[in-house]
Write a structure and sequence with these properties.
Layout: E1 5-6, H1 16-27, H2 36-43, H3 46-54, H4 69-84, E2 86-87, H5 93-117, H6 137-154, H7 157-177, H8 187-195, H9 214-233, H10 238-259, H11 272-295, H12 299-309, H13 312-321, H14 324-338, H15 342-366
Parallel strand pairs: 1-2
Helix pairs in contact: 1-4, 1-11, 1-12, 2-3, 2-15, 4-6, 4-9, 4-11, 5-6, 6-9, 7-9, 9-11, 10-11, 14-15
Length: 373
């Protein structure tokens, strides 16, 4: 069994594929998803119709590629833990305390940024604490990473695999035994109504980033840990590395859809079947990007997305707090007006949004200015 190395707060290993895949993931958040609608109207091609359909979240049960964006980001946060391959077992109290402080600080920052992103501070000054939405995408990323880190730092690899399986199986039994898989009848809704402070997303009976569904998200992060450890262990054997990623990805993807026969794939409830399907997809994407970026070394491809991935949190926050469409119209509105087709003009504006953001992020990238909690 591979041994974990001691924790070092200064050690950090980056892979081009991980940064590029994170950037590819964020590309669809910052405006990439808006490309398909005007392209479909202009061309009528079935490929763009399919892409447009995939850029919508599933209404309830089911799965689209847009549903993958969130769990893929959580998976990649686990990959960085696995690449570091550190443990706190047997370390001094001072070193443990330093690691805990940094982990808690990162968690609190992400929770706070999540509230800011959702504009969830209420409608009054001082804010009404009961009207704040505390649950958020960033909070879930923070909690998933935090608990995965504690597990990695304190448990041996075999125990980590058992915890991963226990989370998914135990969550299934909990959902199956204490509720159903409907919007208001799930155990998730009951827990959020009882224990989640503040308000839920759009006033729903449950919150899609609520308390109980954070559990299987930890499994997504742990799967990333296992993948990162595999990259760490087999970096000098790319053939074996890729074979393992692709085989594991196909297997878990198939297991998730098989489980779907009795346990529906559902993003909002983050069912165990959904976790397996998204982990399988994440492994397949990681394998592809490792091939492109770290083996074939497609520098243009890697840079295109790594520029976004190295400042993923920054660009995610900016997508909520900055009106990029207004900026694009100010810069490229004249060009857009040249076209007689409104769809062509809209396409110019969307490309302008992506271009402006990429140029700013490239400026930060060239100067190695990376914002991370």
């Amino acid at each position: 069994m591979q041994q974990q190395t001691n924790y070092s707060p200064t050690s950090h290993r980056r892979l081009a594929s991980v940064d590029a895949l994170r950037g590819f993931d964020m590309f669809w958040i910052i405006g990439g998803e808006s490309l398909f609608a005007p392209l479909l109207s202009l061309t009528g091609l079935g490929a763009f119709a399919w892409g447009q359909a995939q850029m919508q979240h599933s209404t309830w049960h089911g799965f689209t590629l847009y549903d993958l964006i969130f769990p893929l980001f959580i998976f990649l946060s686990g990959v960085t833990l696995g690449l570091a391959n550190k443990t706190l077992r047997g370390q001094s109290p001072q070193l443990r305390q330093s690691a805990y402080k940094k982990a808690v600080k990162r968690l609190l920052i992400l929770v706070g940024l999540g509230v800011l992103y959702n504009h969830g501070w209420g409608a009054s000054v001082p804010p009404d604490l009961s009207e704040i939405r505390y649950a958020s995408v960033l909070a879930r990323i923070g909690f998933a990473w935090f608990f995965a880190a504690l597990i990695v730092w304190h448990c041996r690899p075999i125990a980590q695999y058992l915890i991963f399986a226990g989370i998914l199986f135990g969550y299934w039994l909990l959902q199956l035994g204490l509720g159903d898989f409907s919007i208001s009848g799930s155990i998730n809704a009951a827990v959020d109504q009882c224990c989640l402070p503040g308000i839920t997303y759009q006033g729903k009976p449950y919150d899609p980033e609520g308390l109980l569904s954070t559990l299987p998200a930890v499994a997504n992060a742990l799967a990333g840990v296992f993948a990162g450890r595999w990259l760490h262990l087999h970096g000098d054997r790319p053939g074996k590395l890729l074979k393992g990623l692709f085989l594991a990805g196909i297997t878990l993807f198939a297991l998730g859809w098989t489980w779907n026969l009795i346990y529906p794939v559902n993003k909002d409830l983050w069912t165990g079947s959904f976790a397996l399907v998204t982990i399988g997809c994440s492994l397949l994407f990681l394998g592809c990007f490792y091939l492109f970026a770290d083996i074939w070394k497609w520098r243009w491809f890697t840079t295109l997305f790594a520029v976004i991935g190295c400042n993923a949190i920054l660009v995610y926050m900016a997508s909520s707090l900055v009106n990029w469409t207004y900026t694009s119209k100010s810069l490229f509105g004249g060009i857009a007006s040249v076209f007689s087709s409104a769809d062509a003009g809209n396409l110019v504006i969307v490309i302008g949004v992506l271009t402006v953001q990429w140029i700013i992020l490239h400026w930060l990238y060239r100067r190695k200015l990376f914002v991370s909690p």
